[in-house]
Each structure stands twice: as C-alpha cells, then as structure tokens.
Amino acid sequence: MIKRWVASLVDSPEKARARVGAMLESSGLPYVRDAVIPDRIGGYTEVGHMLLTAEGILLVESEYFRGAVHSSAFTMNWTCFEGHERHVFRNPMHRQRELADTLDKMILGERVGVGVRTCFVICGPVRFASETPDGVLPEARLRDYLVERGGAPTARQRAVWSVLLSRVACQPVAPFGIVNEGSHAHLSPRCPS
C-alpha cells in the first residue's frame, strides 16, 4: 500500500502517456499516433493511437486519473473524487465509440470485413467505485491485452490499413510493424502507405 502511494507521488499524466506510447510502439503491431480524422460535424478530431491487429483496427485512448471514479460504460458523465474535490466530465467511452463509428464508415468496415474496436486505458492511482466498465483497461493490463491481439493481420486488413493511412493525417510510428526512426519529429500530412 505504501509503495503504491509513493509511486503515485512521482507519477504524472506525461509519464503515463509515455509508458502507454512505449507499450503500443513495442507491440510489433502496425501503429500510428495522433491521427486526424473527419468528425461528425464537418470538422476534424484526433485519435490518440490506432493499431492494426488480427481482429481489425484498434483505437486506443488513455487518460490519467487520481482518486475514485464513479462510472459505467453507458452513463453520460463520469465523476472523479480526489480528496475533497469533485470533477464531472463526459464519459470518454462515448467519444471513442463516435471515433470508431467514423472510422468504420471511412473504411466501409462491414463491407470489407475489417472491424473497428476501442480500448480505453486508465492510468494513475485510480479506482472505480463499482466494477471497471467494459472497454476500460487498467494500464497494468495493456501489454497482455496487446499480446492477445498480436496475431498477423490478413492481407485484406493490411490493404484497408494502407487506404486508411492514405486518407488521414497522422504521426507514423510503426505503420507496418517496423518503427520509422525519423517519424517522431513532425506531424506528416499523410502517412506512408
């Protein structure tokens, strides 16, 4: 218990974001970060991380929390209690579902047989007041989660991935499972296909 408390004092959202990024990058799966896609109202929005898995495209978002979170997968808002402070915010899983729907329409998911799934990674010294909602993954489970989905994508999935990357602006990290060393420097207008 004391070890966890001490770790929470030296941890930060930036460190958690770096850990999640490192796990995704080292997964060996085709991966891009900071992808900019069209949104539902004619503008653009950013997807933190997209990976190509044997199950299809996986959207991964992560958030750092401290305290106790009262939530479910379907409530409109979540509430986080940290000491005497109370923070109410929109359920982040709703945004993920919207992003998944947008990407699914972009790639004609049902027609081509490549689904879009979501994973919300929760970081920091946080606990859920009731059960952890479906679709929420503690940071400590992320590596195992990726290993479970680490099979080789099909040729069809790779083709859809290439088309998707040609249509979005993104930060290429490992578009085909190989890390591009010079890719971290800037946001490219298009990912390599």
| Biggest sheet: strand arrangement | 9-7-3-2-1-10
Count of DSSP H/I helices:
6
**Percent range for β-strand residues:** 25-35%
Helix share, percent: 25-40%
Rounded Rg: 17 Å
Total strand count, please?
10
Major sheet size, sense and barrel closure: 6 strands, mixed
Order of helices and strands: HHEEEEEEHHEEEHHE
Uncertain stretches: 177-193
| N- to C-terminal distance | 48 Å
Shape: globular
> What structural class do the secondary elements suggest?
alpha/beta
Average pLDDT, to the nearest integer? 83
Pick out its properties.
disordered C terminus, four-stranded mixed β-sheet, 193 residues, 10 strands
Outline the structure in words:
The chain is of the alpha/beta class and 193 residues long. The protein is built from 6 helices and 10 strands; from the N terminus they run H-H-E-E-E-E-E-E-H-H-E-E-E-H-H-E. It has helices at 2-10, 13-25, 92-107, 109-112, 142-148, 155-167, and strands spanning 31-38, 44-53, 56-64, 67-70, 77-82, 85-90, 116-123, 126-128, 136-138, 169-174. The strands form 2 sheets. A 6-stranded mixed β-sheet has the order 9-7-3-2-1-10, with helices on both faces. Strands 6-5-4-8 form a 4-stranded mixed β-sheet, with no helix packed on it. A hairpin with a 2-residue loop joins strand 2 (44-53) and strand 3 (56-64). The longest helix is centred in the middle third of the chain and has 16 residues, at 92-107. It is globular.
